[in-house]
Amino acid sequence: MNVMQPIDRIRGGVHEKERHESGHKHVSGTAEYIDDIPEPQGTLHGYLGLSQRAHAEILSIDFEAVSSSEGVIGVLTAADIPGENDISPAHKHDEPIFVTDKVEFHGQPIFAVVATSREAARRAAAKVKIEYRDLPHVTDVLEAAAANYPLVIDPLKLERGDIEAGFAKAKNILEGEMRIGGQDHFYLEGQISFAIPGEDDEVLVYSSTQHPSETQHMVATVLGVPSNAVTVNVRRMGGGFGGKETQANIFAAVAAVAAKKYRCPVKVRPDRDDDMSATGKRHDFHVDYKLGFDDEGRIEAVDAVFSARCGYSADLSGPVTDRALFHADNCYFYPNVRLRSRPLKTNTVSNTAFRGFGGPQGMVGGERMIEEIAYAVGKDPLEIRKLNFYGGEGRNLTPYHQTVEDNIIGRIIEELETSADYAKRREAVIAFNRENNVVKRGIALTPVKFGISFTKTEYNQAGALVHVYTDGSIHLNHGGTEMGQGLYTKVAQVVADEFQVDLDRIKVTATTTGKVPNTSATAASSGSDLNGMAAANAAQQIKARLVKFAAERWNVSETDVAFEPNTVRIGVDRLSFNEFIKIAYGARIQLSAAGFYKTPKIHWNRAEGRGRPFFYYAYGASCSEVSVDTLTGEYQVDRTDILHDVGRSLNPALDLGQVEGAFIQGMGWLTTEELWWDAKGRLRTHAPSTYKIPLASDRPRVFNTRLAEWSVNREETIRRSKAVGEPPFMLGISVLEALSMAAASVAEYRIAPRLDAPATPERVLMAIERLRAAARQKG
Amino acid sequence: MTIQIRNTIRFILNHRLVELADVSPVQTLLDFLRIDRNLKGTKEGCAEGDCGACTVLVGRLLDGKLKYESVNACIRFVGSLDGCHIVTVDSLAQPAGPLHPVQQAMVDTHASQCGFCTPGFVMSLYGLWMENAKPSIAGIEKALQGNLCRCTGYAAIIRAAEAISAIGDVGKDPLVVERDRIARELATLQDGRRVEIGSETERFILPGSVDDFAAVLEANPKATIVAGSTDVGLWVTKFMRDISPVIHLTHLEELRRISVDAEGVTLGAGVSYAEAYPVIVEHFPELTELWDRIGGQQVRNMGTVGGNIANGSPIGDTPPALIALGASITLRKGDRRRTVALEDFFIAYGKQDREPGEFVESVRIPFVSDDARVAVYKVTKRLDEDITAVCGAFRIAFDAGRVTDAVIAFGGMAGTPKRASNVEAALKGAEWTEETIERAVTAFDQDFTPLTDWRASAEYRQLVAKNLLRRFYLETQSSGQIRLDRTIAVAV
User: Fold this and answer.
1) Is the ipTM reported for this complex over the cut 0.95?
2) pLDDT value of position A778
């Protein structure tokens, strides 16, 4: 038996600032995305033909010019679908792959062309002649309500306390409304699928999807084959952000149908413009609110309706609008509350998941209410925020009857106020505004509390597969997908830590439905919580077998067997991990395990609006200062300070990147990212030339981001970490609130600015004009 | 003189000389790299030159000097690359070798997340690093105006850009060390011949000289003239338009000349925005910010001032400013030349004063007289790399508190870049006071009836136009802060 010198610790264990497992490949262009996979000979290309009307009957379609176009192999329509012509993730049968007689939004897929090259397919698709009979269309959420458009899914109501009594008791009552814009995901890698036909009914689909299992099931349904005939693979996505949770399915299904029909590999990749026209986005919202509060600004009652532009079908609009209600309270206790959702149908693309999943819109609505109260009672909005924070017994129940047990927002806010020097800077901003008429400044400090878990309880489960090979190298596979967030790195760190081996010994392989079945979407920030636990479980199963084996073989007690850095200690002796594994294999110990995890404690009764939908909450806060040019409405973010809670970080470097990136994305949503439909119902901001996500120069001029290093998840999550994907997105709200303050300065802060989102320079300037006029009238 | 003809194009791709005889006039560099050459490191994000995922470096000669510039491969035609050196991300590190310092810096600072935009960032930063090994943060941001990242929030990428020189010495970089050799190699490719490729229906021509260009264009008056392809590129990638026959210009060094004399500056029509930058900053410093905000760095490296004028955009990055400065252009057809005031060139939306067979040869910008004050304001939804909602350019001359001359031109307010002649009339001869300004702004309603679109509403455009005159006035009064302070210290 070899005696090994023990080392301190492994390289790349948990809580280490480990590099992204693909970093070196990203920078050298060798990280393989689906469009980079070598194409087998005979690969064909599919291209979707999209509706040119927002709402119309299809009278006739002439494919003559399409079919005779150079390189065309064939045209696919609904008639070519062997199984069901439906990919509704809500199982509402409201989402055809190809429409047959009626189009319901401009950009809706009607057919696909299959040709020998993508270029040929795309050019051919443009040659179709379709005769339409226009029907009246509605793109706006309020117009949809006025036109009595239906709801795409059952609405939700959350109610607690006595709303009537609350308003009766309140000294002040205020009503208002707000518009909150949508957002395109703008993943840099567009949607793409590549299907390779197999034997019998089999097909292998490479899909840029956040939800391989659902893509698998959709492809199976569309092909009319059992799920076991379909394998979906994804090594990495070039960004997802929710935009590839359900929206990847149509491309996968079309590629698979074509692959089976023509018995050739088929790739489907839309141009960016078509991607942005034909796939769903973040929901736009209209919020109608009524508030009751006392003279101090303490909330007595809240009654609000959140109406959402859902587009033509349900997709995920149910859970998205639910989550808006779950976050309309943000960090605030509403003694008497009624929140209602109104998921409205519109003649626009069906809106979908997007980082925060409705939560951000709910939270922006909640923060607008705080702002209203602050201006009504003439206080700093931060004072109103603190006054209404969730507290102890009697002030800790959410509108959905979950008790807030892990509240740390007080400490977060206190630390950020100090580190950002908020009070002094606010005074300086007010002083600056007194002296300057053209440039005005604003500052705001806003909190975030975000609930972690899928609100659909059954999604809170995960699987993983771990193999240890006889050379001691480890193969790790799990149901989560890598879209840049560093999930593969974090889960590998967990496994390295379990076995106490260096990280480079572990290879994470492409997510595939063939290895880990029935997985949930990598969404709801749940990736590392769920898959980290499942992978740890798999490792623990193997370790348990190994411990038992070692105890028997070397005749020690099981407690005397320990996995220590790159070694296994058995009694007083040490073996290298590799050596030990070789011996275990020789003794016919199973060196592979399927791990599993399900989140404990959670339950949710939607009909009653009651339960514990969230395992825990993640918290954070940001403080932003802005300068606004009141002649044009242009602005810049002068400084942002962030303090964010990720529990005990699995990887502080990756988490910091998540927080910084989410903030900028949230800021973009609330500032320059504007979706604009014309009178014909066409989305006209469908490319980066017209749809403006933040650039490097839009970063706050001073940008300080810190993780709350003292935070530890009170729940037993993987290594006491917290989810990080979505919560920091809402840190961007401080920019909107700071812009509001700058606008309000032109009316001496006496009128609530009611700045809607996105606060484009135009919206800011128009708010300033409105406030100036109102101030003049007030005298 | 008979011109000699070659039927191939030749360029260096990474380390190898490539010679092609069969190239479509609409073949983009990106598809060529990815599909024809299996170089998959360069990515397609948007196919319109706005996201930078496809950024590569193109080295080209000017007077024997070789310079590498970042360009968007998605809208660059292969046909335009004769005599160039194309450097893609795939060539920066050997398969088993160490990463390039730019790449290593990106890895060390956790500057990639999904990684799809990353090759483009690497190439933009590489281009910057070769020009300036210790760039300021403002310089880094400027080099990255044409690169979108949706994951990182950019902070880590900026940290990477600052760290490169601590990892590697730019003086030892292969493209620096071997520059003279590569320049000589490229020089041998320049044989002064006309290049003609393709059949009657699908062809493109690289004239051998400007005189040859004039002859070729006269013979092919319906040809599409392509300079930087930052606009025509999209005709192909977005509108799938047939643009054959194509005449490429970027290889003509004669069109890239800049001359400065006692009265003003003359820019050859092929001078890129980036090439014009130093002379603009020196002689027309009021245009510096505008110039910094035209497209992103890749677009400024490709796009030309001549092309910007000739394509007649109603918004136009440079025309409003150039009109305010009193610029004129020289048009040439065969051997005949004529000069027109720039403002007269734009007749109506999509219609310019250019005959078939005629081309813009040069742009003349006269110096500003000492009694005049110039300002250009570009208003956009996003600060950088955004097409103008409203651009106002002012040149107003004063004498003893009175306006002696006023030239005011706007983009985004009409079907063409257009002067605000009623506003000018209201100012001329008047006292330079707030009352005059308030009277003059009402004349905008006679001058312009702007449209509502996704960039701005008509109402906003009209209000902003008025406010820009107000700003011009306020800036002559110098009271308090009138513009956003873009120079606020940037901490990372």
Assistant:
1) yes
2) 82
